[in-house]
Amino acid sequence: ITVTLTMTVQSVEFYSSLAWLAPSYTARGWGASHAGYLLSAFTAAQLVSGLLGPALTDRITDHRVLLLGASALGLIGQLGLWLAPGAAPWAWALVLGFGQGASFALGLVLMVDYARTPSASARLAGMAFFVSYTLASFGPATLGALRDATGGFTAVWMTLALLMVVQLGLCALLRPGLR
What we know:
- There is one protein chain.
- By secondary structure, this protein is mainly α.
- Helices cover 82% and strands 0% of the residues.
- It has seven helices and no strands.
- Helix 1 (2-26) runs parallel beside helix 5 and helix 2 (32-56) packs parallel to helix 4 (89-113).
- The longest helix has 25 residues, at 2-26.
């Protein structure tokens, strides 16, 4: 259940950030193409960390270290977008992308870490993906409703930062040997 909850929070974070990063900056007066480049930087950072994160699992046996590090990067990015969106938007997008890319890729590693057999891994992955993607599909729309209700993006990024704290807590529970 902890793996599924971790993947659910990570998926809500990712899809909501993907949906609202560019619009939050067009609302701040950025041109659509400039905001699109910001989204591209966010995505490029995910690509890099998504490849690097699992590669480090061969060297670091307690994967919580990597998961907590990735989640901390995500939290820094979310906090920046919430509390200081105009201060360093490119930095926030990159840091958030590094955190979310690694979190997703490391989440895939969890499917192997917490299963005893290949068939158990497949069952865990099936459950985790079904639950996480189903619940995550509500994230962007729910945060869009929050944005509409509040008239801005501050509450959206605050909510995502708070969810990242939940993700940190869940990652801390994923100790080696947990079945």
